[in-house]
Design goal:
With 268 residues, the chain is mostly helical. It has 14 helices and no strands. The N terminus is likely disordered.
């Protein structure tokens, strides 16, 4: 007899309405992720290399399935053995970090190289770092900048930053402060947090660009706004030299540059 009359029907309706919309949408997303996971895994089991990489990714983050790094490793290995570049990169990264697999720089280099030769910018960037530091390979600045350049030309901000560093310090190439500035600017436009500090230093001392205290302060301010504390001492020192009018111009320039970079990043 409970809930058979109108009062019972009203109670049931109210109870349903009391379930927060965020909860129902979250449940819907979770169910969709599970369905998507099973569909992708079916393609992976049929030998699809990209689906195998996607399945590994899903296991690695627990999307649509319980997180399982051993399963992730198994599917990355399957895809990498078929030549799938993202899986090769991820497998290399597991060796590089000693995550799931034992730390092994030589194995990391092996997989990064396979991926990098297929154009994976993350693998190219990391391979450059390994040649730069001599991890798993003999240290070789020329080889390092070769891989940095490949990644940088694909728009990888970290690789662009490293290109700037190599040109500024003459590692693997002849020192060229103007080219260093060019690469630092590309990196900063891509959102790299430390590039603005290096741009500011070049403007401050007049290396590769005419000395410009307003531009130096503006770029340092951008760096601080991105969470980099490195420019703070230089800002404090330069701030004592700037007039109130110059300080205002520097802040105005920083705001303008940030707007331009944000707009550029939104473009397809």
């Amino acid at each position: 007899m409970f809930g058979c009359g109108k009062e019972g029907a009203t109670l049931n309706k109210k109870t349903k309405n009391q379930i927060p919309s965020k909860v129902t949408s979250a449940l819907g997303r979770a169910e969709k992720q599970k369905v998507d996971f099973l569909a992708i895994k079916a393609k992976a089991e049929n030998g699809g290399a990209k689906s195998q990489t996607q399945t590994a990714n899903n296991y690695a983050v627990g999307r649509g399935v319980e997180k399982d790094m051993q399963q992730a490793l198994m599917w990355y290995q399957k895809a990498a053995d078929q030549g799938e570049p993202q899986a090769q990169f991820n497998l290399g990264y597991m060796y590089y970090n000693g995550e799931v697999l034992p730390l092994d720089y030589r194995k990391a280099v092996e997989w990064f190289t396979k991926s990098a030769k297929q154009g994976n910018s993350g693998a190219q960037e990391t391979l450059g770092l390994m040649y730069d530091s001599g991890d798993g390979v003999p240290e070789n600045d020329v080889e390092a900048i070769k891989w940095f350049r490949k990644a940088a030309e694909q728009g990888e901000p970290m690789a662009q930053f490293n290109m700037g560093w190599m040109y500024e310090n003459g590692e693997g190439v002849q020192a060229d402060k103007a080219l260093a500035l060019e690469w630092y600017l590309k990196s900063a436009r891509g959102g790299h947090p430390e590039a603005p500090n290096f741009i500011g230093v070049l403007y401050d001392v007049g290396d590769g660009v005419p000395e410009d205290n307003i531009s130096a302060y503006a770029w340092w301010l951008i760096g601080v706004n991105r969470g980099d504390d490195a420019p703070l001492n230089n800002m404090e020192f330069l701030g004592r030299k700037l007039t109130p009018e110059q300080m205002g111009k520097a802040k105005e320039l920083a705001g303008k540059l940030e707007q331009e970079m944000a707009a550029a990043q939104k473009k397809p």
